[in-house]
Design a protein that fits this description.
Elements lengths: L1 H17 L17 H13 L9 H13 L5 H8 L4 H9 L2 H15 L8 H6 L1 H9 L4 H8 L3 H4 L11 H11 L6 H8 L5 E3 L16 E3 L15 E2 L6 E2 L20 E2 L9 H7 L1 H6 L3 H16 L14 H13 L5 H9 L2 H4 L23 H12 L39 H9 L14 H14 L19 H12 L5 H15 L7 H13 L2 H4 L2
Antiparallel strand pairs: 1-2, 2-5, 3-4
Helix pairs in contact: 2-16, 3-5, 5-17, 6-8, 8-9, 11-12, 15-16, 15-17, 21-24, 22-23, 22-24
Length: 545
């Protein structure tokens, strides 16, 4: 009886189960990794039918990462040691370990903060470099970096000379830089309270190498002791928990100057070695900003824009707006234990958005988030990469200032990084003059990526000036007067692009060498090298990455 009942129940259960409709659609594949960007973008890729992204080759990815993190194309030995056989994460961390990464980070943040030497004493601006470098080393997290910058005159006094003591432009700069938006009128008034102690002076410092009066920073010990407002004069209540700056300081004045005020605490006397209690009070505005999710979303947005290239966070370009990616990355960064900027970069540069190839030819239109980054070399990237390829120092620009070498009205020579030996080989200030024509070497102002016709003409002039002695164009062992051979062209190709030429490119180089050999005006290895060098310098394969 029990067996019969069991059989009946089984039959009924089977019949019931067979009446349930079965969805023939297989479940979507999971994201290819646990990278927060990949997880966030994956549903969009599935919906649009773009899950078949082509990974960048080792050479393509290696050059991309090298330029983004160190500002130059990689050399053959770097490709072999840092890239070949390595995962994207290993490649990224390998380039981050190079000294040039610190220099590239420093230059990026100098431009992003955009301090103007005519509006603030250069010693203060140069002092902020220690904050950028500490973040590049992972010594401090991003929240610490923001707090320290907003406790520094490079931010607290960031406004033009014409704006004098009007704090509104400073607050606008703080919000745009760290929150990615403009403040409301009441937010300006509220946050300005936290900056009330800061003052900008106009005094001589000729003994420090300046050729004109400069604008040192100072703190007013009385600023938060208003007889009517009391502590509320230096209190913010709108952006988070009520926050009050309470400075317990007495005046400190540098000796030997006639314009100083005996009522102020001069920042230059404690610069880089601020008493801990005072530093903690000055950091309160930045710490307040770090409690807001929008600060972390903006950090994510800046990293995506910087490395992906096509990224835009504006509705004007809908194909370049991926809010789910920005929010996922911002949330991840805020929750990361160390909040290390380098870890943020690793996530971006190991994601599908970054590691996909930009060299794949496809039918029809594809949104930018399926085609990998494509960026134009910035002027300094171009010149530094050319210097490497040609084995010749070209010089450098100080990213802080537009002043030419030798001028020291606002930027003393003692604060400049020394020019490399041999940089005069192409003429005095050749590097800066070339970069300015390309849209670079503009001091702390962000260089335009596409300056148009002047850049095109400069590329032509660069080719004429660089693709000849004193540049080293020929491979070792080949005499300048020897017959033109494809080995000369192949060697230059590899030095410029950090990879061997593909089969179709080999055919083009063969044809160029043969044409040169048959032309009495070319014919020699030296002349072929000059022609190939100029062609490579102007080629899209070199100018884009």
């Amino acid at each position: 009886m029990g067996t019969r009942t069991t059989l009946v129940v089984a039959v009924v259960s089977a019949c019931s189960a067979s009446s349930i409709p079965i969805d023939p659609t297989p479940p979507p594949p999971p994201p290819p990794s646990d990278n927060p960007i990949d997880v966030a973008i994956w549903p969009r890729l599935i919906e649009e039918g773009f899950t078949d992204l082509t990974p960048a080759t080792t050479n393509e990815l290696c050059r991309r990462i090298s330029l983004d993190l160190t500002g130059v194309s990689p050399q053959a030995d770097e490709v072999a040691t840092l890239c070949t056989g390595k995962s994207p994460e290993q490649i990224v961390r390998g380039f981050m370990a190079l000294p040039r990464f610190r220099d590239t980070e420093r230059r990026f943040w100098i431009r992003r903060i955009g301090a103007e030497p005519t509006a603030l004493m250069a010693d203060h601006i140069a002092d902020a470099d220690r904050i950028y470098l500490a973040a590049a080393d992972g010594t401090i997290g991003y929240d610490d970096m923001v707090a320290q910058l907003v406790a520094h005159p490079i931010i607290t006094l960031h406004r033009s000379i014409a704006e004098a003591d009007d704090v509104a432009p400073t607050v606008l700069h703080v919000f745009n830089t760290f929150l990615g938006r403009a403040p409301s009128a009441i937010e300006i008034d509220d946050f300005a309270n936290l900056l009330r102690p800061w003052q900008r002076r106009f005094e001589d410092r000729y003994d420090l190498g300046y050729s004109y009066y400069v604008r040192p920073a100072a703190l007013d010990p009385r600023a938060c002791l208003d007889a009517v407002l009391g502590a509320s004069a230096c209190t913010s209540t709108l952006l988070g928990a009520p926050t009050t700056v309470d400075l317990q300081i007495t005046p400190r004045v540098p000796s030997g100057y006639s314009q100083t005020s005996d009522n102020l605490y001069y920042y230059e006397l404690a610069q880089g070695d601020m008493p801990a209690a005072l530093q903690a009070e000055l950091e309160k505005p930045g710490r307040l900003l770090a409690t807001r999710a929008e600060l972390w979303d903006e950090a994510a947005d800046v990293a995506l824009s910087r490395f992906v290239g096509w990224w835009r966070s504006t509705p004007n370009e809908p194909d370049s707006v991926l809010p789910e990616v920005q929010q996922a990355l911002g949330s991840w960064f805020r929750g990361h234990e160390t909040r290390d900027l380098r870890e943020l970069y690793v996530v971006v540069m190991t994601s599908l958005l970054y590691t996909s190839s930009s060299e794949v030819v496809t039918d029809g239109e594809r949104p930018p988030w399926t085609t990998g980054p494509t960026k134009l070399l910035e002027p300094e990237q171009l010149l530094d990469s050319v210097a490497r390829a040609l084995g010749r120092e070209l010089g450098q620009c100080d990213p802080h200032t537009e002043e030419e070498v030798g001028l020291d009205f606002y930027w003393p020579d003692r604060l400049r990084t020394s020019q490399p030996s041999g940089w005069y080989g192409f003429g005095y200030d050749f590097y800066r003059q070339s970069a300015v024509m390309l849209g670079g070497c503009l001091g702390a102002r962000q260089a335009p990526r596409n300056p148009g016709l002047p850049a095109l003409l400069t590329h032509i002039e660069l080719a004429r000036g660089l693709c000849a002695p004193p540049s080293e164009l020929l491979p070792a062992g080949i005499d300048a007067a020897a017959p033109a051979t494809v080995a000369v062209a192949t060697d230059l190709f590899t030095r410029f692009l950090a990879r061997a030429p593909a089969s179709d490119e080999v055919a083009m180089l063969d044809a160029a060498a043969a044409a040169c050999l048959g032309d009495s005006g070319c014919a020699t290895a030296k002349n072929l090298a000059i022609e190939v060098c100029g062609a490579l310098l102007r080629s899209s394969a070199f100018l884009y990455y």
